[in-house]
Amino acid sequence: MEPLGPVREFEEIRSFLKDLPAADGVRLGPGDDGAVLGDGTVISTDLSVEGVHFRLDWVTPEEAGARAVAAALSDLAAMAAEPLGVLVSIAVPRAGEGAGPFMMGVRGCLDHLAIPLLGGDLSRSPGPVFLDVVAIGRSEAPLLRSGSRPGDEVWVTGALGGAAAAVQGWLAGSDPSPQAREAFSYPRPRIREALWLRAHAPLSAGLDLSDGILGDAGHLAAASAVRIELWIDRIPIHPGCPSGPPWAGLLAASHPPLWSRGEDYELLLTAPAGGISPWVEEFRRIFDLSLTQVGCVGEGEGVWIRSAEGTGDAFRAGGGWDHFGGVEEESEEGIS
Amino acid sequence: MEPLGPVREFEEIRSFLKDLPAADGVRLGPGDDGAVLGDGTVISTDLSVEGVHFRLDWVTPEEAGARAVAAALSDLAAMAAEPLGVLVSIAVPRAGEGAGPFMMGVRGCLDHLAIPLLGGDLSRSPGPVFLDVVAIGRSEAPLLRSGSRPGDEVWVTGALGGAAAAVQGWLAGSDPSPQAREAFSYPRPRIREALWLRAHAPLSAGLDLSDGILGDAGHLAAASAVRIELWIDRIPIHPGCPSGPPWAGLLAASHPPLWSRGEDYELLLTAPAGGISPWVEEFRRIFDLSLTQVGCVGEGEGVWIRSAEGTGDAFRAGGGWDHFGGVEEESEEGIS
Which chain A positions have a beta carbon within 8 Å of B5's beta carbon? Predict the structure, then answer.
């Protein structure tokens, strides 16, 4: 089995989604975290494949089920959409066996968030376990990737690198720390957090950090036609992450920094200058979660990496990711 | 590889969907062909797994993609919902290779029906090809399984057994007839047909024949709390089906009749007596498709099989399917 990791983006698939004609009843087609119907219904679908997204010698089936649902719901958080329910398709090697524990995990996550399970499908799989989770939500004004403007600030919820630290531990044959393990096994979709911030702060754009902050900031920069500057020494590092300088590995293609590897399912948000900072303390009190400014938005394109004080070079990360640790090579990209 | 065929229904999964509390914004949860939101949005998800639902030595990737989409859209037809779009999740063995032809088939089917592709997800698969298609539609008054009443008539669109005849041919090592092959490879979701009938005839209930008419009539009987009588000598047999008495194999568990094996994606409909027959000719003219009465609805429960003239015994098919050729043993059941 190959090391767990997201797969290369397929340009040939993306080509099927480009330049689609506008359709009646569809407000937003492919290209954001979810599709948006004319009435504000938001729909996203998210695959979890055994051996690609999880391994059953690392996590339990319950954890794999919970993680699959959390990852799907994170797309609704990214768009600040209120969840209406999910559908779950699952294929397991033997019919009638083994699906139950995955669905226990699915239900556990949904019950915790008071989100209904609306239906799904099931099948035998002649190979690995497959889960596909469809998340359905609603938003009158979904938060898109395309709204960032020069002068905006870039913020992130929570801390990054916990899930990647767990994977690194497992791949090295050791047990990850309990904090890292939980970050991988039970990522928290930031749904209430997104709805609260959307209601209070003048958010201009957002997405969830599934691919990793470098790649995801690149998506946001491209969709908004702006340049995003990330302050590397302000990236909040997850307590489950081994300590070290945040830029270690940034230039080594084979070992990108843990905080850049994604699957944290935190939110990357932009807002006009001063729009978020008044809410940081109340947000932390309500959600027990940090909000950290990690950069700013300017004219131009791509993602640039520098220190918060502006010392040192600004590395261009947009447009040519390979020298930043295979971010594009290994980037997994939802089509939606 | 095992013979292709649908898998056993998982009671343990079904148990996760039963007795769910009603949720705000959800009109209909699991148990019908799709879930229905409060505003009439209909959502269904449908799995297609290589080696279970299709084999690539039988059909091309394009055909597998088209068939996966058609099967998913058939759930919208079953509910007489107007399609808004679909999302497609796909996992293929090698990233960047092989997904294109499947998506060509997906787009071909969608373009033919003028339905937009709204998004999806993609992944590498360490095993078989895996497709999950989410179909989204809208209906102010979705056609449910629960509306049949004693005295209603039971009708079916088109003819049955073509897809099963193709599978039988492939399993026997021979090439199926072109008609049978097309029935398997390009099933037609009866969307326009369902919308037209819904607008003209007083339909009381309906579903699509994915599992096979015996099992599917059983679902309808159970949902409506009625007894369904099927007239075995009136079942319309697909021209790609080898000829023979329609009841051949009915009592042989290992070889159920081809017309009962499902995957035809025709519609099974009920309506009050005389409600459909005035429309048969116009329907045939518009859609080049037959409408055939195949039975009636009575008080009681289960599915009973007899001749149209009432001669011979009425076999009870509901409640104990095993003696009817493993209908339940091999029944594939969407959760939704």
Answer: none
